[in-house]
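Lab notes, practical 5.
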Amino acid sequence: MDLDNQSIAVLGGGSFGTVIANIAASNGNKVSLWVRDSEQALRINSEGANTSYHPELKLSENINASDNLESVVKNASIIFIATPSSIFEAIVIRIKPLISDNTKIISCTKGIKNDPFKTMTDLISEHLCFNNSNSVGVLSGPNLAKEIAEKKVSGTVIASKDIDLLECTKKILSSDTFKIYSSSDIYGVELAGALKNIYAIICGIADSLGVGENALGLILTRSMAEMSRFAVAKGANPITFLGLAGMGDLVATCTSSLSRNFQLGVSLGNGLKLNQAKETVGQVAEGARTLDVVRYESLRLKINMPLVDSLYEIIHNGGNPKILIDDLVNNSNEIDVEFVNKENI
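Output from the prediction step:
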């Protein structure tokens, strides 16, 4: 693929989709941004800003927003999908007849589909990779959209088996404040991004309980152990979890009030029910949906995930948030570093 300026489509005009579109457009690329609301598209084009998510961010003139999916993806050489996981598959199915065989597709959505268990790139491969000609990638990392919009230094990981896709994405998105790293472990990078949302909720609950910094450090390390145990059981490389998409994203999301999943956890810890907590956050927090999928899969595969079990009890069975810490302290597992050892799954 020619690495000169590209015709790019970004599907999803939320927090992250907007900043990704703006970085790509600011680098001289023509970017079409798909949003579900025609009024939102009109406001973005007329005001040069997505006031619903980033009112202070002046968007590049190279961005054109539209609610017409066909016009957005038509002739795009690379498509970034940044929609909520709940509509991801429907969008993938809709674009299938609209794209060419050599279009590159990158997931920016940190979620997992259930029944059966599938990642977002699984869905892309299932529906779009006819003749195996569509290249697939996943973009994930400690990417709090508000900080990216404010041009604070951030980094992310692009994972793909396609070297051309890796190099193309680096050129499209690299900037003075946004560093792009590469990986060939699609599954590891993708699972890291989805799983950490569960633990961000847990850390939000713990923070609301005032457990202290030592306890949060304990939760973070046990979260890493659970995440990597699960990922190894699903075929990912555990070393991926030591990097930006794993530990980097986990730390950022589990310690920041900018994280929607952390905010959700704080609300739950303060006694709100799940639906009430979601309303308080105001935007999609993927962790609650991912929790249900991961817990079912962990039980099916007999993977030890006590933090996941505790959070499930709190959210779905009315458990007191304090059981989170009680269950952690009383869990019989006392092995420290275990995630590199498949025998400990």
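Observations recorded by the TA: Residues 186-208 form the longest helix (23 residues). Residues 341-345 have pLDDT under 50 and may be disordered.
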